[in-house]
Structures
1.
Amino acid sequence: MAEIANPQSPLVPKLEGVHLFHFDGAPCAQRVRFALAEKGLMRGKEVRWNSARRGGLRSRPNSWTSRRVSLIRKDHLTEEYAQIHPNMVVPALVHDGRLYLESMEIIDYVDKTWARNPLKPSDPADAEIVDRLVDWGKRLHVSVRYVSFHWGLGNLAKLKREEETRLSQLENAQSPEQLAAFYERYDRDDIDLDEYLAHLQALEEGYGHIEDLLSDGRQFIMGDQLTTADIIWSIKVLRIWECGYPFRRNYPKVYRWYRRISKRPAFRNGVMSRHKWLSAFFRLKAMIENAFGSGLRHVAAPTRPAHSTKIG
Ligand SMILES: N[C@@H](CCC(=O)N[C@@H](CS)C(=O)NCC(=O)O)C(=O)O
């Protein structure tokens, strides 16, 4: 369930309308912003993520208040944020004093609450395929983390010792994210290349399947309606494309579909508006690394990998 009963944060019950705790460059938050924009809910006021000042407590109808939790300044590794999200990740959404966690569940909640522009097919069989594609995308979330940290963020993402300590003290022990355990190995260069490559291959298997679905020339993954499957998979492409992955060479249909999606006003406004400079920085970094032979292009499957898992 997306809604969290009795959130610990005293800020949550004070918030009226829609408030999103997010970071512009975080894929999980990008999905939610993309969906909000598709539903006609636009980015409104920007307030400090933890601000309880009167002027920022209420959002206007059809817009959401942006509470930017910087993953660079490590706002998410604070006790105050742990009271909002016990797994210490973005995004978190508050609607009229109620807290919702988990990006794809937040999107389902938004889709049900604002009925216009539905993001799920009405046909139950199609809806089931979308659910399976979304589940697959969710399982690959950790692979995006491994690949984008190794070939994208590099040392920029490493935590300082005191940040690591704070995270391990504050993170919910049951968190499926297991961020503390990840950083403990990542910060010490304790993850070997084979493990990173296995995550890359898991992603390639997913992209291969989307390539197959798109091979009949359809506009979106499910045909002519944009669904949550397009939302989760397009963001999965964006992050890895920013790391220099050769989509055009390996998955040309996925590449063209992604380019189409990325031209949608909801994608431009919801995902890219304040992410474009960071995105350009990562693209440039990846181009240089690819040119010098150390980039993701050089470990990407040379041709489309064989894939056996079939959904839809
Ligand atoms: N299952 C969660 C995953 C959220 C998640 O992992 N968020 C990432 C950004 S995409 C994060 O906040 N990471 C913090 C970090 O890497 O330190 C969801 O879908 O909402």
2.
Amino acid sequence: MTTSDTCSKPTPVRDPETDEFFDAARRGRLLLRYCRHCSHYALRPGKHCPECLSPLTWVSGSGLAQVWTWTRIHHAAHPGFAADVPYVLVTARMAEGPLLTLRLIDDDGGNGDIEVGTPLQVDFIEHPDADPTPVFRRAADD
Ligand SMILES: [Zn+2]
């Protein structure tokens, strides 16, 4: 995990529906919502599968993904990110199939080598007074 240097950024808000997700995130583990009836992964809030309406359960995700698309943010949408621009926002295809959009934290801020298909790994940024925030970083070369 990476520790945030400031906590002026908006942070996740825990609720009973996300307790298990954030408990796992505090241990550096990514959980995904999964439908055991139709094998669909869901990355949006909700207790029921958007495909078949069966109950969803939390399962461990690999955290592995590949860049599907990305954009470089030059204007902070929140004052907490003003010191970070430019930064890269990535939508990546998770190894389990769904798309997930997160910030890429190990970009060089300008001329990084990010491209479609770049392998990524989910990581978490710790905050002193809030639950961890999931982010992407480039996967280590094997
Ligand atoms: Zn389903």
